Amino acid sequence: MTEPTTDTFATPGDPGPPGPPSADRLRTWLAARVAYYLERAVDEIDHEAPLTSYGLDSVYAFSICGDIEDAFHLAVDPTLVWDHDSVAALAAHLAGVAAAATDSATDLGTNSH
Amino acid sequence: MSTGTSTITSTATDVDRLDGLLGDPWDAGNPTGFAALLEADEREEMHAESERVLDGYGLNAEFVPVGLGGRLAQVDRLVQVMRAVWRRDPCLGLGYGASSFIASVNVWSAGDERQRREVADLLLANRKVASAYHELAHGNDFSRAEFAAVRDGTGWRLDGRKEVVTNLRRADALVVFARTRPDPGSRSHAQFLVPKAGIPEGALRYLPRFPSSGMRGVQLGGAVFNGCPVPGDALLGDEPGRGIETALSSFQLTRSALPSMCVGVVDTGLRAALASALDRRLYGGAAADLPYVRAVIGRAQADLLAADAFATVVTRALHVLPEETGVSAPAVKYLVSRLLIDAMDELRTVLGARAYLRDGPFGVFQKLARDLAPAGFAHVSRAACQVTILPQLPRLARRAWFEGGPAPAGLFRLGGDLPPLDFGALRPGAPRSDGLSGTLVETAETCSDGVVGRFAARFRDELDRLRRDCAALGPRDLTIDARPEAYALAGRYTVVLAAAACLGVGRHGRDGLGDLDERWLPAALDRLDRRLGGPPVLTEPERRDLEEAMFRLARERHDGRRLLDLTGRAVRG
What value of ipTM does the predicted structure carry? Predict the structure, then answer.
């Protein structure tokens, strides 16, 4: 291991503009993360396919959960990916979590994280 | 007991009582001493008389939470009691004790009130519970476990093989890890609490034991389950699919506590080596006068203290920083088992041919060396621990190291009271913070003087290197297919964590160390640093002085009948 790489995907990537992310934006972002871990092109990722069918095991599941927390400042359960096992299912679930977090942050006048 | 160790007297009562019951192990006339234990080992049996004594003491109560009528309140104190057993006979440590502990932790973590009560009652009645996880075909990769549980009416049927399970035959209940659906992934397994009494004739067939070089007295067994019916309420947890989650939570306890218990094994190995060196006349003097012999013993003493500091701090972290033990517990299993096995290997050279004798006053050494070897692969292998740590490193590098604060000072006050253990707080997943590394960084910033300051700077620099190298790890390097260089990063990180634990104890835990020579800290740090390679922090004269100081420490503790670990507790022998 010598010099740091310049691979921008080694960090969780750009989560996009501020505000609660939509399911569509989450899908795009998640598909890119999954493609990164699988070392495949992003258009090869079937949004409906179970991530386990790609061989994404618990190791990657924890990494993806960590990436979600870091990119969107959402506290997610580490077993989230075990329960929502496709890009589409995860995006739909997270969009709900993000909207709820934003609502409560607005109510309380605090940041969700 | 010296006044210097008075801060740990809150546990001293129990562990002293146990030590008193078991007597001086070196006394050839002691029915539970090394001579008797060696004879049982030659017969490949558990030592029956010692088991009766442990029944009388009620060792199992150490594994049962206080709320259920047992004595388990603090994991570090459980370990102190268990070291009193492991330092005499690892077969008793595992085969009488720790195997029931491993099984029961699953139930404390995931069981309902009735299941917890059932296991507590069994243990408090001196019964055993076996943990049936292992399948030969899948090794540590238990997510591939094939042993199947299939729904059958309101209950389940169990089918498949489990092998190399401690006490499978003599346990009164089993915690069985089984696949509850064929799908890949981490929601396809569950644990079942299976009392033996309910198993019908023919549904469970035992397999012969595999002959082994160590742990020969332990009843390692296998079994074939053939459509074995279990009731619906045997399932641990509200629903199937929680098995991997429960395992990853429970293992944080066992991966930190078991290696810590093994510190007791090297305590005896070191004592045997020292006794041999003091007794043996060579070249007109005692072997213990030879500089080489003194250096090996001094280094082993420093290794033992480094292992103790790291393992004890992480067992305390289960109470204080449970969100971080998903990484620090496998780090203990990985590094401490290695430190201890290597120390025994080096001590072998002090005993020379005596390390091969199977009886007599030094016969215990070869048995302990054989019994310690499984610490590197049993329950979970060191390699599997690396695989657990590796994927966490890029994120820790990105957001934890040099970012978060230090661990609370109380973590390092060995012997001090801790908040209650919350089994629910031990979760699988990716820790967001790393308090131990925070303590390292803080120590390096505030303590720049002297030898300890130099070591703090050295390990801080290593953390900095790790931050750079780990942030650059590609996705393939986070898995079992990682390059050897990536695996090496996980190993180096465990050394940095151990150094941080030692520095934290040196900084905040002095009151709990009694009269321990302060040079233990640079001596332990030097031993850890040598595992990283690189330019030495110490000059050769400095290292020689520290090794001599550690030899003298071992000698004083040996002569004064005190443990060689950080507690320095007074013992019978």
Answer: 0.81
Q: Which of B226, B241, B256 is the last residue of a domain?
A: B241
Cα–Cα dist B264/A25, whole Å = 55
Answer yes or no: do B204 and B255 share one domain. Answer: no
| Contact criterion met (CB below 8 Å) for B213 and B238 | no
In Å, how far from its chain's centre is CA A64? 6
- B chain contacts of residue A3, beta-carbon cutoff 8 Å: 472
Which parts of chain A register pLDDT below 50?
A: 1-10, 108-113
Q: Tokens 């305590």 correspond to what residue? A: B267
Kindly state whether residue B512 falls inside one of the protein's structural domains: yes
> Cβ of A62 and B391 within 8 Å?
yes
DSSP B203: S
**CB–CB contact B430 A78 (8 Å):** yes
The residue extents of the domains of chain A are 20-106
- The CATH number covering residue B140 comes to 2.40.110.10
Instruction: Please say which residue of B71, B98, B128 terminates a domain.
Output: B128
Contact call for B479 and A11, based on CB within 8 A: no
Task: Point out which residues pair with B193 in neighbouring strands.
Answer: B175
Q: d(Cα B179, Cα B149) in Å, to the nearest integer?
A: 6
Q: Domain range for residue B453?
A: 247-559
- Please answer yes or no on whether A85 and B143 come within 8 Å at the CB atom: no
pLDDT tens digits, residue range A41-70?
999 999 999 988 887 777 788 889 989 988
Please say whether the beta carbons of B341 and B372 come within 8 A. Answer: yes
Rounded Cα–Cα distance for residues A42 and A31 (Å): 6
A52/B184 touch (CB, cutoff 8 Å), yes or no = yes
pLDDT in tens, B291-342: 999 999 999 999 999 999 999 999 999 999 999 999 999 999 999 999 999 9
Alpha-carbon Rg for chain A in angstroms: 14
- pLDDT of res. B272: 97
Report residue B103 as tokens: 């099984």
Please tell me whether residues B176 and B79 are part of one structural domain.
no
Q: Is A37 on the interface with B (CB under 8 A)?
A: yes
Q: Are residues B76 and B59 in the same domain?
A: yes
DSSP conformation letters of B476-543: GGGSTT--HHHHHHHHHHHHHHHHHHHHHHHHH-GGGGTT--TTHHHHHHHHHHHHH-SS-SS-HHHH
Question: How big is the A-B interface in CB pairs under 8 Å?
Answer: 88
Report the CATH number at residue B497: 1.20.140.10
Residues of B in contact with A62 (CB under 8 A): 391-392, 428-430
Q: Which CATH class is domain A20-106?
A: mainly alpha
